[in-house]
Automatic annotation (TrEMBL):
PANTHER family: BILIVERDIN REDUCTASE (PTHR43377:SF10), BILIVERDIN REDUCTASE A (PTHR43377)
SUPFAM superfamilies: NAD(P)-binding Rossmann-fold domains
Name of the molecule in the record: Gfo/Idh/MocA family oxidoreductase
A UniProt-annotated Pfam family: GFO_IDH_MocA_C
GO molecular function, one term: nucleotide binding
Domain Gfo/Idh/MocA-like oxidoreductase C-terminal: 148-326
Chain ranges of the Gfo/Idh/MocA-like oxidoreductase N-terminal domain: 13-131
Family affiliation: Belongs to the Gfo/Idh/MocA family.
Length: 338
């Protein structure tokens, strides 16, 4: 419970929001619908878009995130902007004595992420890294049925999205989105949450591009060997030279398999296939936001810790180094260096 400022049971959390995209809109809606929070101000990438966003949600416009984090009338900063800026904004907000909620990834840099977690503890402030994939129907169904398939030996998780033409936006920009499995770190975080620690990491990636900053296609494959002996493949791709979409999670065990194709799930045993009910993905940002407020007001536990997110960032960083060098990265060496 963070109660150093006031008797929060009679107050509202005053929130500043950074970002104007999809996640920011869902955050704004969640904050407006919870009487415990008051959305005070917003800062975005372009003034025109930020002004329109602020008008829709009846909040104040600020010209920069730097201006927002320095506001004395804010308790909480929610970071829902381009991946590259997450670490810098979180550091500034924590240094100004604000609680921080940040969409994944916490940072591109492992050392910076470690420093942010340490700073939050020094400041006695909440640092929450959103990982709503853990709250989603597929992940919850996996957890519910995992014990039925016995010892798990192989997992394949593939998310491939054709987009033609590829949008010229930050999610297709090397600097702003980051290395694919850091920018889309949820692909790895699901596995760490379900299967624990990683022993070795291999990774290969390829871009198709006609200019240095933006790419038209990204394709990345990673192979993880877990300390349990489990082998996992993670495939991530998007863009113009991809022709078939896929969102599939396969878990193979000695007694059966769990297959999730899109929002459809099956439990497979010899001679029998049983459908698995998967709840909707709608409302997850609202659920995350509500849990944050429960934590701030009542000390209720959150569903993920920044340390857990940090561990996955170390795995993603190992994947990046494996892709750059062509070498197998041993996580024990990575953890020894941190």
């Amino acid at each position: 419970m963070y109660n150093s400022e006031a008797a929060w049971e009679k107050a509202t959390v005053r929130v500043g929001l950074i970002g104007t995209g999809y996640a920011a809109k869902l955050r704004a809606e969640a904050l407006l619908h919870d009487e415990r929070s008051h959305l005070v101000a917003i800062a975005g990438h372009t003034l025109e878009k930020t002004t329109a966003f602020a008008k829709e949600y009846q909040t104040e416009v600020l010209s920069s995130w730097q201006q927002l984090v320095e506001r004395e009338d804010l308790d909480l900063v929610v970071i829902s902007t381009i991946n590259r800026d997450h670490g810098a904004i979180a550091h500034a907000a924590l240094s100004q004595g604000k609680h921080v909620v940040v969409e994944y990834p916490l940072s591109f840099d492992v050392k910076e992420a470690e420093e942010l977690i340490a700073l939050a503890k020094i400041q006695n402030k909440l640092l929450h890294v959103e990982h709503i994939e853990l709250l989603g129907g597929i992940h919850q169904a996996l957890k519910q049925h995992l014990a039925k398939i016995g010892d798990v030996f192989y997992v394949r998780y593939s998310t491939i999205k054709p987009q033609n033409p590829a949008p010229r936006k930050w999610t297709y920009n090397h600097e702003l989105f980051g290395f694919p499995l850091i920018g889309a770190i949820s692909r790895l975080h699901r596995l760490n949450d379900l299967f624990g620690k990683v022993f070795t990491v291999n990774c290969h990636q390829r871009y198709w591009e006609i200019e240095p900053e933006y790419y038209q296609t990204c394709f990345c494959t990673s192979e993880l060997c877990f300390t349990s002996g489990l082998l996992a493949q993670v495939v991530y791709g998007k863009g113009e030279t991809i022709w078939q979409s896929e969102r599939k999670f396969e878990v193979h065990g000695e007694k059966g398999g769990l297959i999730f194709d899109g929002e459809t799930g099956y439990f497979i045993q010899p001679g029998e296939t049983t459908p698995i009910e998967v709840s909707t993905r709608r409302g997850l940002f609202a659920k995350d936001t509500s849990m944050v407020l429960d934590h701030l007001f009542d000390g209720a536990p959150l569903y993920v810790t920044p340390e857990e997110s940090l561990y996955t960032l170390k795995v993603a960083d190992a994947a990046q180094r494996a892709a750059q060098t062509g070498l197998t990265i041993f996580m024990a060496d990575t953890l020894d260096q941190s």
